[in-house]
Specification:
Elements lengths: L1 H45 L8 H10 L1 H12 L1
């Protein structure tokens, strides 16, 4: 009986850690996406380059953030 209680406590702890880390990663990706989209909007508005917003570009911006925007900027000139 005591083993099941320890197992249940460890299972709840592991679930809590997975949930906390998942939310932290999603928060980080949301911030990267927002900053990247603002930067892409400024670049498109100023006419420096035209970066289309499709799913692949959005994923590059979400993961890379500002670096992802600069990668897309370089790729748009090629």
């Amino acid at each position: 009986m005591f083993q099941w209680l320890i197992f249940l406590v460890l299972l709840i702890l592991a679930g809590y850690l997975v949930l906390k880390l998942t939310l932290a990663i999603l928060k980080w990706m949301a911030m990267n996406t927002i900053i990247g989209l603002i930067l892409v909007g400024i670049i498109n508005f100023l006419g420096i380059a035209h970066i289309e917003l499709n799913l692949v570009n959005l994923l590059i911006i979400a993961v890379g953030g500002v670096v992802g925007v600069f990668i897309l900027l370089v790729l748009s000139f090629i």
